[in-house]
Amino acid sequence: MGSLGVILAAAAVTYGTRLAGFALAQRRLPPLFGRSLAYIPVAVFAALIAPDLGLGTAELLPRLLGIVAAAVAVWRTRQLWAGLAAGMAMFWLIRAI
Q1: DSSP 40
Q2: Which of 12, 16, 91, 96 is most open to solvent, judged by the fewest CB atoms within 10 Å of its CB?
Q3: Looking at residue 50, what is its pLDDT?
Q4: 33 and 43 in a common domain
């Protein structure tokens, strides 16, 4: 399978899942499934952050403290934007020190 075939297969899977989501929008989800969907933004955010933690570099401590500050902010406010702001502020503060 050449590169074009892989690209077309990935596009078909991606758009197939999106179309399935539109088809399911008219249905009522089971409560357990609905509650589990609330964790998707946090999981995606963690997946974006984890590869770039800076393991083995001088930036590890500022990044970890930024993550802790972000987690506390989101836990207290239940707002993702507050976590982003607190995490970045802590990262820049610790890095400046």
Answers
A1: H
A2: 96
A3: 76
A4: no
Owning domain of residue 20: 1-37
Residue 30 half-sphere exposure toward CB, CA atoms < 13 A: 3
> How far is it, in rounded angstroms, from Cα 85 to Cα 88?
5
Residue 79 per-residue DSSP state? -
Task: Write the pLDDT tens digit of every residue in 1-60.
Answer: 688 999 999 999 999 888 887 887 778 878 888 788 888 888 887 888 777 776 777 788
Contact indicator for 70, 84 with CB cutoff of 8 Å = yes
The separation between CA 1 and the C-alpha centre of its own chain, rounded to angstroms, equals: 31
To which residue do tokens 């074009």 refer? 4
Q: Are residues 56 and 14 in the same domain?
A: no
Residues 2 and 30 reside in one and the same domain: yes
User: How many Å separate Cα 54 from the centre of its chain?
Assistant: 18
Single-letter amino acid code for the residue at 66: G
pTM for the model stands at 0.52
